[in-house]
User: Fold these one by one.
Assistant:
Number 1:
Amino acid sequence: MFLKDITLGIDFGNTIVYNDYNGNKIAYLKSVEVITEAVKRCKEVYIISKVNEFQRLKVLHWLKENDFHEKTGISPNNVFFCGAYDQKGLIAHKLGINCFIDDKPEVMAHMNRTVYKILFCPNPKEVRQFDLKHLQDVYSWDNVSQLLFEGNI
């Protein structure tokens, strides 16, 4: 798959950011840098996050406070929220996403078979619960960068 043909979907929690011991959201090392490059080189980039209303407001606040849209080039219109993991697959299908990054194997189980699936720091116990094929485990945004930008997809 050529980079210019990739419509990329990315989860927010535990993929772009993680919570520190005080519950503050901290961006993973290089996540913003890699996403910024993806916006420049991919066909389109979206964020799809499963949250409740309180979490949605916190995510929107974090995006604004950290100038995420300005830094990455992702439009606020390219950020979607849903209330269940299976809804991510429906949103991804509607948006034409053909590559998705998430930390939850359950999400990947609801993605179309044609979507290239990248599991970010997955919990091995959760991975064993699902019989998933055609996916790649990664453990850093450097790994994501290698897959996307060095032609490994």
Number 2:
Amino acid sequence: MSEFKDFYDTLIENLEGYEGEYAYFINCGPNLFNLLCDLLSQKEISRQMRLEISAAHNLKLDYESKCENLHGHNWIIEIYCKSEELDKNGMVLDFTVIKKRIKEKLDHKYLNEIFDFNPTAENIAKWICDELSPFCYRVEVTESEDNTAIYEV
């Protein structure tokens, strides 16, 4: 923390004499230093998992599209989770839990029979994120090489 104190002191020295927005930093003094120390001491551990799921769907759209017909994809799903602390097993969220909640529920299924919403890549990404809450903060759902939906909280 001493190197941060040195950085803070140098910052304040360089800002002295400035008016306007920089004066705020100088006037905050120790409160700013304590706030910055608190922010720097917060750590998060992240975990990323990639799943491949084969599933079929058809979309309900308000315009004519071939996607209204039954069709399937080999979906690639990237799931990003984080936590400020690890669980008792030393994990953010066990890969087995992710597989059970997501892959087992969707793989080799007709998605329209599983969801009560239009099974677009965007809606599926949001659903996955909600299913893995509070750990999941980002989901990427790729239904083909050129089409990826990203949901991020």
Number 3:
Amino acid sequence: MKSFIYITVFALSTILPTATIADQERELAFETIARGNLSGVTHQMDVVIRDAQEFEMLWMHHSKGSMVAAPMPKVDFEREVVVGVFLGYTPSCGYGVKINEVEERATSTQVKSQILVSSSPILCLIAEQPYELIKFPRSQTWAITFRQGVAVR
């Protein structure tokens, strides 16, 4: 009887397809809705915004101190989520941030970004606070994680 069970399990394991981690990952399309070097957000932070009220509060904080506040981008929070990467104050000019990829995984969505650093830093006349905000379709996973790298330009 045991040999029958082992043979059946072996036969099924060779016939049935197995899901790999790569099969459970897919890249999500995203759209940059704001990017620049001047922000009212003066400390480093990654944000996930899931509703219009949160986005309005973030946009007011981000626009604070701006001579001409840009209009708040339109987002359909029934279908989309907003993610932002803010570097806060940088030690010199020539810094930036770029979100490269949004990847949906089995248990979370991962946002991959790079901190861009100038190979020859320049003294700034005004302090910079690089940032990027993107929107993308809501995914099946609720958790959103961030992964940052550094690139010299």
Number 4:
Amino acid sequence: MKKVLAVIGCVFVLASCTFVEPEFRGGESIQVGKIDGRDIQITAGAKIYNPNGYGIKIKPSTLDVYAGEEYIGKVHLDKKFKMKAKQETSIEAPMTATLAEGAMFRAIKLLNSDKITLRLSGKVKAGVLFVSKKFDVNETRTLDGLDLGLNFQ
């Protein structure tokens, strides 16, 4: 009986934990690696602050990518990474982008634009210990068309 009460108590404690979304703090970079058909290996770097009192693991997730209103494809986080509690973490996240049909031509056309609005949309899976939760992501960034900060390897 004591074990059952302990398990129920743990469930209530874990369920009552609040989660504050991490915030981007700049240092964003993109390195383009191997291009294989419609798949592109990318390493994205950023500084992210975790305001929570506990460390978080961001697990492999897939997001949709839009340039303006046009669907470009999907990007998949290939490896999980950890963020320490109440600290800013510099991450280098390996990703695989899978372009939609005809997206390469649309992307080349967009590079000639003065400004490009990129939007990532979908769910990201995050976890603490053995508890995981999916969070909605809808991040938008406006970049200079000719200066995207892309580094080709």
